[in-house]
Amino acid sequence: SDKQANLYKKATQEAVDHLVQPWPSAGSIGAEARGMLASGEGVYVHDENGRRLIDGPAGMWCTNVGHRNEVLAETLKEQAMELSYNSPWYTTNEPSAELARRIAEHAPGDLNHVFFTTGGSTAVESALRFAQFYSNVRGLEGKKKIICRDGGYHGSTYLSASLNGSQRSRNWMDFADEMMIRLSCPDPFRRPRDMSLEDFCAGLVTEFADAVREHGPENIAAFVGEPIMASGGVIVPPEGYFKAIRDICSANDILFIVDEVVTAFGRLGHVFASESCFDVVPDIITFAKGVTSGYFPLGGMVVSDRLLDGLRASNHPEAMFAHGLTYSSHPIGCAVALKNLDILEDDLLDYTREITPYFHEKLKALEELELVGEVRGMGLMACIECVADRKSHNPIRLDTEVGVRIDRHCQELGLLVRPLVHMCVMSPPLVITRAQIDSMADILHEGI
Ligand code: PLP
């Protein structure tokens, strides 16, 4: 209606006048109009003009059970009416205790304790601070460096952002770069064209082992990595890579921290992917996003009993892990996460595994297009990478704006695409049907 249209117009103006959007460029900071979304249902969102779009990136990899889920919406209200907040400093609520138990049951190995945070960045930050605390309490004060990789993305707090792989963003801000040991991106598509996958994997593992030797295990607290680099372009590492670097970490007393902020809670058809898909049992897993399907900001880390037992046995009764958030273990977030987990356990995990081959079959067909260098992915995560030249794999130059134009075309045709330069990243709500996958693939075909 006209009234509604005027409301969106007003909201857009208010945003331009008063909102600072995430990741703004200096030239438009505090003065930006981004597309206004009005509502959502299932895999769809509606824009301010009432146009229905498939939510290709599921928000930010998070709307796993889809939009407008009544059970989750009701749970938010019910928990707010029951207990809307309690201080985690000196009290506990029942939903967080039950959720911790259920997460521990799904987590691999002896990862049996959960610290809840407000999202992914705070989950990764917590894991890094924990790793340093763990070194200090054991009297290993020098053991502080963190191994991370180009192409990774781990958040926007100081330490988590320091892990990020994009040099472009680091050029303009201060980061804890001196703490980081940066290794290569395990991107098979960008390996030298005449190198086998086995040799590529062996090279990455050698680089890892060399870095540990060069910096000294006594100076390295942890490795942090995504099992699949999500924002880096859905980069699936070569087979065996994760297990090999896990072994190096174990042999050198380096904590192996897997950032499952994107991959946990169903995206790859499992609650956690580390063991199910990559055959590794981490020391710490971080999660967020899908844990509440984006209905409430919640994240956390699952920690190995071995580490906690070690701390308790350390004879340092005065040592304190001075780390906690006002909204740790938030009762509303945890109540929503419990219902979200019910939905995943009931049949959504099974459904995701069942629909995954169809999703990849349809998207893979886009490789027939001249612009498409590769379609890759795993579970309900895929990246369509556009190239300037299919022989050299040279990426499309940023200034050609091809990526932006593809996004715009797709949006006009009814598909929301996350703008990632020359890559179309698809991670739809897990409830997507075959017919909706067909529409997504058709729109991408036409848009590209
Ligand atoms: N870790 C990974 C792998 C992510 O993809 C993200 C966000 O996209 C984060 C951490 C940061 O999460 P948040 O934005 O909830 O702080």
Question: What topology does this entry show?
Answer:
Layout lengths: L1 H17 L18 E5 L2 E4 L4 E4 L2 H4 L8 H13 L11 H13 L4 E7 L2 H18 L7 E5 L8 H5 L4 H4 L9 E4 L13 H19 L4 E6 L15 H11 L3 E5 L14 H5 L5 E4 L11 E6 H8 L18 H34 L7 E7 L2 E6 L15 H12 L1 E2 L1 E3 L2 E4 L7 H14 L1
Parallel strand pairs: 3-13, 5-6, 5-7, 7-8, 8-9
Antiparallel strand pairs: 1-2, 2-3, 4-10, 9-10, 11-12, 12-15, 14-15
Helix pairs in contact: 3-12, 4-12, 8-9, 12-14, 13-14
Structural key phrases:
448 residues, aminotransferase, Aspartate Aminotransferase, domain 2, 7-stranded mixed β-sheet, 15 strands, 2 domains, alpha/beta, 4-stranded mixed β-sheet, 14 helices, 16% strand, Aspartate Aminotransferase, domain 1, binds pyridoxal-5'-phosphate
Number of helices: 14
- Sheet of most strands: 7 strands, mixed
- H and E string: HEEEHHHEHEHHEHEHEHEEHHEEHEEEH
Structural class: alpha/beta
CATH fold call of the largest domain: Aspartate Aminotransferase, domain 2
Question: From the 3D coordinates, which CATH architecture of the largest domain would you assign?
Answer: 3-Layer(aba) Sandwich
User: What does the average pLDDT come to?
Assistant: 95
What number of domains?
A: 2
CATH top level label of the largest domain: Alpha Beta
Mind telling me the CATH superfamily name of the largest domain?
Type I PLP-dependent aspartate aminotransferase-like (Major domain)
Helix content: 25-40%
Distance separating the two termini: 33 Å
Family: Belongs to the class-III pyridoxal-phosphate-dependent aminotransferase family.
Organism: Hoeflea ulvae
Cofactor: pyridoxal 5'-phosphate
InterPro entries: Aminotrans_3, Aminotrans_3_PPA_site, PyrdxlP-dep_Trfase, PyrdxlP-dep_Trfase_major, PyrdxlP-dep_Trfase_small
